[in-house]
């Protein structure tokens, strides 16, 4: 259940599965922007704040498969790097789990099918903040590790990750790859 408190889903679909949608509400001024995370049923009912960002500036968020956990990317303040944080949906607080090096950011978290791991993109920049490299990393059991060169991971129920390679800012150079999480051998699809 996406409610995160052990109850039945508030927005069950026709098959009784979770039908909640999470979205970010961005607010503030040109000087300071903040975000709040809301959830709503597909019908538009049960709209409500799930997590207040306040100083936390979230860029994206993903529910765990059981709906009890949330992974988000963002930063606190202007001088902080983009990183991945995780928290219980019912708890309303996030705990930082990734620590990118200087001139790098961690974004676009996605959960493994069983919810025990998170894949995300680490982007490294040069001193002019042009993209130097991208990598898909996996965070599991308290540790992050390099998994493959690329960006934009999507984790399938067959324990494979699809991801992109090429210039993140140039669609004409991007190709889709897929690889097994266990074996890591990437196969180009497009």
Helix-strand layout with pairing:
Layout: E1 20-28, E2 33-41, E3 48-52, E4 56-63, E5 69-76, E6 83-88, E7 95-96, E8 104-111, E9 117-125, E10 131-140, E11 143-149, E12 151-155, E13 160-165, E14 175-180, E15 186-188
Antiparallel strand pairs: 1-2, 2-3, 4-5, 5-6, 6-7, 8-9, 9-10, 10-11, 12-13, 13-14, 14-15
Radius of gyration: 17 Å
- From the N-terminal CA to the C-terminal CA, the straight-line distance is 36 Å
List low-confidence stretches: 1-9
* Class inferred from helices and paired strands: mainly beta
Total beta-strand segments: 15
Indicate the percent of residues in helices: under 10%
Shape: globular
The ordered H/E elements are EEEEEEEEEEEEEEE
Instruction: Tell me, rounded to a whole number, the average pLDDT.
Output: 80
Question: Could you name the key traits of this structure?
Answer:
disordered N terminus; four-stranded antiparallel beta sheet; 190 residues; mainly beta
Question: Can you tell me about this structure?
Answer:
The chain is mainly β and 190 residues long. The chain contains no helices and 15 strands. It has strands at 20-28, 33-41, 48-52, 56-63, 69-76, 83-88, 95-96, 104-111, 117-125, 131-140, 143-149, 151-155, 160-165, 175-180, 186-188. The strands form four sheets. A four-stranded antiparallel β-sheet has the order 4-5-6-7, with no helix packed on it. Strands 8-9-10-11 form a four-stranded antiparallel β-sheet, with no helix packed on it. A four-stranded antiparallel β-sheet has the order 12-13-14-15, with no helix packed on it. It is globular. 27% of the residues are buried.
């Amino acid at each position: 259940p996406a409610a995160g408190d052990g109850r039945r889903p508030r927005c069950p679909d026709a098959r009784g599965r979770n039908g909640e949608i999470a979205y970010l509400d961005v607010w503030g001024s040109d000087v300071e922007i903040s975000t709040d995370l809301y959830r709503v049923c597909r019908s538009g009912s049960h709209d409500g704040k799930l997590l207040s960002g306040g100083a936390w500036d979230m860029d994206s968020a993903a529910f765990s498969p059981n709906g009890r956990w949330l992974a988000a990317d963002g930063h606190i303040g202007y001088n902080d790097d983009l990183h991945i944080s995780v928290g219980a949906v019912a708890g309303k607080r996030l705990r930082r789990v990734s620590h990118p090096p200087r001139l790098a950011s961690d974004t676009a978290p996605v959960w493994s099918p069983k919810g025990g791991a998170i894949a995300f993109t680490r982007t490294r920049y040069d001193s002019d903040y042009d993209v130097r490299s991208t990598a898909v990393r996996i965070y599991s059991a308290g540790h992050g590790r390099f998994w493959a060169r690329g960006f934009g991971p999507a984790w399938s129920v067959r324990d494979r990750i699809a991801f992109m390679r090429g210039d993140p800012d140039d669609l004409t150079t991007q190709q889709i790859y897929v690889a097994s999480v266990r074996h890591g051998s990437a196969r180009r699809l497009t």
